[in-house]
Amino acid sequence: MIEPVFSPDRLTELANAAFRQAAEKVIREARQTNTEVVVWKDGKVCHLSADEAERELRQSTTDSPK
């Protein structure tokens, strides 16, 4: 039997880090271009300023279980 290289918990950790990195890039680009960040929230499309998106990202990472 082949042993997995990463455990499921480690893969989740890596995926979450990649999503966070992508979100930070989107926020940075929105700030540089003075555009909104478009997200899906509560079943609908929402347009957030870069500052609002950054707050949402910070809140989501502090609320999530480790």
Protein architecture, described:
This protein has helices at 8-33, 50-63; strands at residues 37-41, 44-48. It contains 2 helices and 2 strands.
Layout of helices and strands:
Blueprint: H1 8-33, E1 37-41, E2 44-48, H2 50-63
Antiparallel strand pairs: 1-2
Helix pairs in contact: 1-2
What can be said about this structure in brief?
By secondary structure, the chain is an alpha+beta fold.
The pLDDT mean sits at 91
* Helical stretch tally: 2
Q: Beta-sheet strand percentage? A: 15-25%
Give the SSE string.
HEEH
Largest sheet: 2 strands, antiparallel
Q: State the strand order across the main sheet.
A: 1-2
Shape by Cα distribution: elongated
The low-pLDDT segments are none
Compute the number of strand runs.
2
Cα(first) to Cα(last) distance is 30 Å
Q: What structural class do helix, strand and pairing data support?
A: alpha+beta
* Fraction in helix: 55-70%
Q: What labels would you give this structure?
A:
single chain, 66 residues, alpha+beta, two-stranded antiparallel ribbon, 15% strand
